[in-house]
Structures are given as C-alpha cells and as structure tokens.
Amino acid sequence: MTNRLENIGLMIRNERLRKGLTQEELGERVGVGKAQISKIERGKGLTIKTVTKVLDALGMSASVVLKGEQLSDTL
Fold first, then answer.
1. How confident is the model at residue 64 (pLDDT cuts 50, 70, 90)?
2. Model-level pTM?
3. Strand pairing partners for 47?
4. HEC states along 4-24?
C-alpha cells in the first residue's frame, strides 16, 4: 500500500511543478503549511480530506477503486 501512497504524492508533486507552484504557494491554496505539502508529496500524512483539497487546488480530480481491502481513514 505504501507504493500507492508514494505514487499519489509523486503525482501531486509533478502537477505542482507543472503549474509552477512552490510548496508554500500550494500550501496557501490548501490551507496548510509548506511542511505538510512536503509530507504529502512523500506519501505521508495523506487523508482523503487533505488529498481532496490538494487536488482541488491543483484543478485535478481523483477516482478511487475499492477492492476487497481493509479501509482506513487514510489513503
């Protein structure tokens, strides 16, 4: 599961860079600090709520496929 989280973080980082935003600028849009954006981009501290806010700030959307795996409140 960790690999998927890192992939989400990498996707967010790549889109942030593509849009020419710093971690601080994205954090301001989301309402979190630069350190939190850094964690998110490394696949750490991801919650559905936070990822949704970050994706909205980047103009992205996400779809989730649920399989027979145990769910938690974090991705």
1. low
2. 0.75
3. 74
4. HHHHHHHHHHHHHHHCCCCHH
Q: Using only the alpha carbons of the chain, give its radius of gyration.
A: 12
Q: Would you say 60 and 14 are in contact if contact means Cβ atoms under 8 Å apart?
A: no
Are residues 43 and 9 in contact, defined by beta-carbon separation less than 8 angstroms? Answer: yes
Residues in the chain: 75
Contact 7, 41 (CB under 8 A): no
How many Cβ atoms sit within 10 Å of the Cβ of residue 33?
Answer: 13
CA distance 22 to 73: 28
Answer whether 46's CB lies under 8 Å from 9's CB. Answer: yes
pLDDT score recorded for residue 8: 86
- C-alpha 33/C-alpha 1 separation (Å) is 25
Pick left, alpha or beta for residue 62 (phi over 0 → left; psi -120 to 50 → alpha; otherwise beta).
Answer: beta
54 has pLDDT over 70: yes
